[in-house]
Amino acid sequence: MDRLSHTPVDTPPVLDRIRVGSAPDSWGVWFPDDPRQVPWERFLDEVAGAGYSWIELGPYGYLPTDPARLADEVGGRGLKVSAGTVFCGLHRGPGEWDATWEQVGRVAALTQAMGAAHLVVIPSFWRDDRTAEILEPPELDREQWAHLTRGMERLGRRVRETYGLDIVVHPHADTHLDTEEHVTRFLDSTDPGLVGLCLDTGHYAYCGGDSVELIESYGERVGYLHLKQVDPGVLAAVRAEGLPFGPAVQRGVMCEPPNGVPELGPVLTAAQRLGVDLFAIVEQDMYPCEPDRPLPVAERTRRFLRSCGA
Question: Is the model's pLDDT at 7 over the cut of 70?
Fold first, then answer.
């Protein structure tokens, strides 16, 4: 009697600590109001239809800012909110605090009302992300670094005391917090109890960093993930031409998984090994885009992430 031969089937790891979501960014939304962006109702309908359970708020004012209405709109589609997002320029010193806190307060209050626990904080751009106008020197001096680190610690403490949220700082292309050198310096200079890290795999790769290595080296600081990939060929041209981030996105530098770098499977596996619950929010970065483009990309990306175990 012949024995039946069985071919081993590769099964993805069970990434049960990773909570996958998406964001308005994946629908080409960068601004509170822009005629080239899809209406917020369509975003909510499509992100739910694509198989995601979690979303970010996106730019303040894109989604409804009345908490009761937003809760109805989000909850009625089976969605939940993972975080809000703010930009700030705390490296400029204490004179920046009042304006920063006014903005943070609006976003944090809505984030808290939606039951989320995180506020993603992105440093301000040193050059305009569309025109390439140089707004500030690309490198901070020693005093500005001190303002940045102390300011983020102050912000983390105040946000937690006032709204019960944890801040996770997001390294971003064309900001002063971008490369491995800058990110590790920032982490080494800030209190882990006050300031976490939002690791955006695409931005970190865009600036030459290794996401898996960062997770393995500074895992205790990683409190949140943004998932995206970079097209290496487009990135090489972007660097050669000195393009700012906005035109680079229009060129297609951020590509649909799994067509770019870093490989997201190893990133998610490294994050799972941390043994903590982590949001992993897809951010496709494709402003501006045709309104029918985001949904198929989002559906394919969700299937791909499931194939990775998430």
Answer: no
- Would you state the structure tokens that stand for residue 11, as one six-digit string? 């099964």
> What are the residue boundaries of the structural domains of the chain, listed by start?
18-307
Integer angstrom CA distances of residue 54 from 83, 91, 180, 223, 224 = 9, 32, 29, 16, 13
Spatial CA neighbour of 65 closest among 115, 107, 17: 107
Is the pLDDT at 3 greater than 80? The verdict is: no
Q: Compute CA distances 225 → 48, 120, 211, 280, whole Å.
A: 20, 10, 10, 5
Query: Which pair of structure tokens corresponds to residue 74?
Result: 């989000």
Is residue 302 within 8 Å of residue 52, measured between CB atoms? Answer: yes
> Quick one: fold of 18-307?
TIM Barrel (3.20.20)
Summarised one tens digit per residue, pLDDT across range 177-188 is 999 999 999 999
The rounded distance, in Å, linking the Cα atoms of 133 and 135 is 6
CA gap 121, 98 in Å, rounded: 16
Please enumerate in sequence order all residues whose Cβ is within 8 A of that of 301, keeping only pairs 6 or more positions apart, or say none.
26, 256, 257, 282, 284
